[in-house]
Amino acid sequence: MDNIIEKELSYSIIKAAYEVFNELGPGFDENIYEEAMVIVLKKYNHLLEQQKRVDIFFQGIFIGFHKLDLVVNEKVVLELKAASDIAPIHKQQALSYLKATGLELALVINFGAGRLQFARVVNSKRRKINSTQTNF
Hints:
- It contains 3 helices and 6 strands.
- The chain is α+β, with helices and mostly antiparallel strands.
- The protein has a single domain (7-135), classed as Trna Endonuclease, Chain: A, domain 1.
- α1 crosses α2.
C-alpha cells in the first residue's frame, strides 16, 4: 500500500520546479522563482492561490497572519526558497503553515543551491509528523 500523500500532485509540482530550475538556475530572488512556478503550474492546469493570507488566532483572538507563497489545487502548500540550503527553520515554517491551514502536505523547494532541493513536510493526526529532504 502506497502511503505517500498527494503523490501525483507532488510529482507534478517537482517536475515544474525542475523546469524552472533548469531554465533559470540558482541566483535569483524567491519572487522570481515564484512567478516562474506560477507560469509552469498553470501550464500544467493546476489551480493556484498565490500569496494566500491565512489569519492566525490565539485563544480566539487574531494575532497575525501568514502569507503562503503558493497553494496548489487547494491541497499542497509550497514554500519557495532561494537559500544555500534548506534549513530546519524552513521546514518548521512550512509546518506552521500546515497547522494554520489544516492542510496535510507542504513542499519546501529551494532554488538557491547548486542543485534543486525539496523537502516534504507532513502534518496529520493520522500520520507521524515528519519531513524528508532530497537533493537532486
